[in-house]
Write a structure and sequence with these properties.
Elements (H helix, E strand, L loop, with lengths): L6 E4 L5 E4 L1 H9 L2 E6 L2 E9 L2 H8 L6 H12 L9 E8 L4 E5 L9 E2 L3 E3 L17 H10 L13 E2 L4 E6 L2 E6 L3 H5 L8 H20 L4 E5 L4 H13 L3 E9 L7 H10 L3 E7 L7 H8 L8 H12 L6 E3 L3 H5 L3 H12 L3 H10 L10 H13 L11 H8 L20 H32 L4 E3 L4 H9 L2 H4 L4 H5 L7 H7 L5 H4 L17 H12 L2 H4 L6 H14 L5 H25 L7 H5 L1
Parallel strand pairs: 12-13, 12-15, 13-14, 15-16
Antiparallel strand pairs: 1-2, 1-8, 3-4, 4-5, 5-6, 6-10, 7-8, 7-9, 10-11
Helix pairs in contact: 2-3, 6-7, 6-20, 10-16, 12-16, 13-14, 22-24, 24-25
């Protein structure tokens, strides 16, 4: 599954690099290209979609992509890699310096590093003799709160990871990060007024070009089909841009009245695609150890089981390429109602009252399945719009779990701005710092890319194309989001306005006239039998992870409350969803601890539970 690029770094001796000889051949066989110029060498893992364009612009017609990127860097410096369109990881060795560059969204290979070495997979860390896996409490509590650990932090002490869209420079003095794309560039972009018809024509052509580049000369192509505008847009536009065979893949849930499968079937039938479906029934949780291995650090998000199921299904087809619709919500700008409400609250002087309520409600009284929980949840959704949503444990719970003295300060919001003068400034800041750098890079494309890599599926994302991204940055805000601040506040705004204007005529009315469902799993499906729940409770409470916690019986108290919720009648769906998410977080961290820290590994969850 994984081809490792393992390098030992001797920083004390001018950062001499030694590529382990036993790994070189395996590395190249697994997709790295190499180019050398004198004492400098460059390794490239890529799926680039603008190779032909780069050759022409540089007037450099090499057949080696690594050599082409070498030429680009020699002419424009490492920031010239901003021009690369696709997924890639560049590893560039010079005499006293090593530079590692990852693509904008982190679709290409991950890079983990310590003061002594780096590797392109989590499993690669354990190939080094002197490496000992020790947990990092800050990373672990961050995961338990928001479901992931934003780069450069990890769950392992002394280990860092290179963030998506960043350049890591390693020298004898240490290391330094630099962003490929800065927010100030977006803020300073000239957004010229554009007629709707012209914008539609340009956007349509860009999307067709994106799909054409990703499909190439494939004899058949897969399209992930959820039943909404983004996946439907991929199918509709691919049918225009491509004349070959299209296969569609959809996931549903057993006994789920909100299933989107009927809408996916409608679209597949309309465009004559060969349609495939898989119904999740909760037994998929048995693959959790495999999912943990594919993702590396502890990770939990309501749709990650869905990603695993669909990649497993697609992998049996051995398609040349599969198209995903991930990231389009975030590139256009998501959560427009909360953004408008926050802006209005600030202008009305209500933010201090919202902050006061947030402080007063951060306790167990507001953690029950009633109106108080819902008020606290909705207040945080509007107040903390520059922060990732907390579907895991809140700070007051983590302080009980680890004790107040052992609960480390969180640092993943250190570079987020929180003061804005205009609505547009707020929208653009949130779009860049939260939607793109967190939601897309750390969650949505991270899980999809890592799982496709695990199953050896060539998964390509049409909406994250570099030219589409640049086009959206130059687009006037009213073509991304239709509606005034007041209309958006009241839920009457239209997100992804330009995209919907383009795609709506191409899709069945039943698809375009319904509320958005979203790509998440109803998590209680994985805990739907008393026997399964009891086995999971027993495993978590007796786990090695639980043994390090503060002796205040937090886990047993949580389990008792969850069981009462599981057997009772819920007041609000999202309370049960969040509590199920918290239970999954505990299960994942217990499994991760067993597999990574204790080196106790079984192929399936059932083996741990027995």
């Amino acid at each position: 599954m994984y081809g490792l690029f393992d390098c030992s770094l001797n920083i004390e001796q001018n950062l001499t690099i030694e590529i382990a000889p036993q790994r070189r051949k395996n590395t190249f066989n697994d997709g790295y290209q190499e180019a050398e110029r004198g004492h400098r060498s460059l390794f490239l893992s890529e799926k680039l979609y603008n190779i032909k364009e780069l050759r022409q612009s540089l007037n450099y017609f090499t057949g080696n992509s690594a050599d082409l990127v070498f030429e680009l860097i020699d002419r424009e410096g490492v920031r010239g890699c901003r021009r690369l369109n696709g997924k890639f990881t560049v590893i560039f060795f010079e005499k006293d310096k090593t530079t590692i560059i990852r693509d904008r969204n982190g679709e290409g290979r991950m890079i983990y590093f310590t003061k002594d070495f780096f590797t392109d997979s989590y499993q690669g860390l354990f190939k080094f003799r002197n490496f000992k896996a020790e947990p990092d409490l800050k990373g672990i509590t961050t995961f338990l709160k928001i479901g992931y650990i934003p780069a450069p932090n990890t769950a392992l002490s002394g280990v860092s990871k290179v963030p998506a869209g960043e350049i890591l420079s390693l020298t004898k003095e240490g290391f330094r990060f630099e962003k490929l794309f800065e927010y100030v560039e977006i803020l300073q972009t000239d957004r010229k007024e554009t007629p709707l018809e012209e914008a539609l024509e340009n956007y349509s052509q860009l999307l067709k070009d994106s799909l054409t580049l990703r499909i190439g000369d494939a004899s058949s192509v897969g399209v992930l089909l959820s039943g909404g505008y983004d996946s439907g847009g991929n199918l509709a536009m691919a049918s225009e841009a491509y004349s070959g065979k299209i296969k569609t893949y959809s996931i549903g849930f057993k006994d789920n009245q909100a299933s989107e499968l009927p809408y996916a079937r409608m679209m597949a039938n309309q465009y004559g695609a060969e349609h495939h479906e898989y119904i999740m029934d909760g037994t998929e949780i048995d693959f959790l150890p495999e999912i943990i291995d594919s993702l590396g650090d502890p990770f939990s998000e309501s749709g990650f089981m869905l990603n695993h199921a669909v990649m497993k299904m697609v992998s049996t087809e051995e398609l040349p390429v599969t198209i995903g619709g991930d990231g389009n919500d975030q590139y256009f700008g998501a959560g427009i109602q909360e953004t408008a409400l926050h802006y209005k609250m600030k202008k009305s002087g209500l933010i201090p009252f919202s902050k006061l309520f947030d402080r007063l409600s951060d306790n167990h009284i507001f953690d029950n399945d009633n109106i108080l929980f819902r008020m606290h949840f909705q207040n945080q959704k509007v107040l903390k719009i520059m922060e990732p949503e907390t579907f895991g444990f809140h700070d007051f719970q983590l302080k009980k779990m680890f004790s107040s003295d052992g609960f480390p300060a969180q640092t993943y919001l250190e570079n987020h701005p929180f003061n804005f003068e205009t609505y547009e400034e707020l929208f653009l800041n949130r779009n860049y710092h939260l939607h793109l750098r967190h939601s897309v890079n750390e969650v949505i494309l991270f899980k999809a890319s890592r799982m496709s890599e695990y199953f050896n599926v060539n998964l390509a994302f049409s909406y994250t194309d570099l030219k589409i991204s640049q086009f959206l940055q130059q687009l006037p805000l009213h073509l991304r989001v239709k509606g005034s601040v007041e209309e958006c506040m009241k839920g009457k705004g239209v997100s992804k306005f330009l995209h919907k204007q383009l795609v709506k005529p191409m899709l069945p009315d039943a698809v375009t006239n319904r509320p958005k469902q979203g790509g998440f799993s109803p998590l209680e499906i994985f805990f739907n039998t008393p026997e399964q729940r009891k086995a999971i409770y027993r495993y978590i409470s007796g786990s090695a992870f639980a043994s390090i916690l503060n002796k205040n019986n937090f886990i047993n108290q949580f389990i008792t409350r969850y069981e009462a919720l599981a057997t009772g009648k819920p007041y609000w769906f999202w309370h049960k969803q969040i509590k199920s998410n918290q239970l999954i977080n505990l299960l994942i961290i217990a499994l991760w601890w067993d597999r990574v820290i204790e080196n106790r590994k079984y192929a399936r969850l059932s083996a741990y539970l027995s």
